[in-house]
Design a protein that fits this description.
The chain is of the alpha+beta class and 150 residues long. Helix content is 25%, strand content 35%. The chain is built from three helices and six strands, in the order E-H-E-E-E-E-E-H-H. The protein has helices at residues 25-43, 127-137, 142-149, and strands at 6-12, 54-61, 64-65, 73-84, 88-97, 103-116. Strands 1, 2, 3, 4, 5 and 6 form a six-stranded antiparallel beta sheet that branches. The protein is globular, with a radius of gyration of 16 Å.
């Protein structure tokens, strides 16, 4: 799908399901984490290395479950940044199920804060990161994506 600036694909494994025969809710948060890391790598957040002294940390995340996902399936997680604040990013994720003909099966919003890992103090989102996100999302209708996710 070319409607999202960042796209992550995941296979639904048998072991992802719980005793109720659908993907366990915790798995969605793993998918969101994978999608966030993909986004970070694509915009050049090099602070993911263990020796970094500053970088992103997850401050908040939610999930709206819309349709249960079951094995076998493949999901596509579309992601984008809708807002860059002084010290934070608002990141959106939309999960589409291949089995359900690309229907949206879950949505998520998360707040990622840039911090100094040694002092735990918030840091201003670097201008280079702001520019990299803007460049990566250029040509995508972020306002439309945001409205469709609300």
């Amino acid at each position: 799908m070319n409607i999202y600036p960042f796209v992550t694909h995941r296979i639904v494994n048998w072991g992802d399901m719980d005793s109720l025969a659908h993907v366990n809710n915790a798995k969605y948060f793993s998918w969101f984490e994978d999608a966030r890391i993909d986004l970070f790598e694509k915009v050049g957040i090099d602070s993911l290395a263990p020796t970094s002294t500053s970088g992103p940390i997850l401050a908040y995340i939610d999930c709206q479950f819309i349709i249960p996902v079951t094995h076998p399936d493949e999901v596509l997680i579309g992601s984008w940044v809708s807002r860059i604040g002084n010290t934070s990013l608002l990141v959106h994720h939309v999960v589409h199920s291949q089995k359900h003909e690309s229907t949206v099966v879950a949505t998520s919003k998360s707040v990622v804060v840039t911090i100094n890992y040694q002092t735990s103090k918030k840091l201003r989102v670097p201008d280079t990161l702001r520019q990299s996100i803007a460049l990566a999302q250029e040509g995508f209708d972020i306002q439309r994506l945001k409205q469709s996710d609300d």
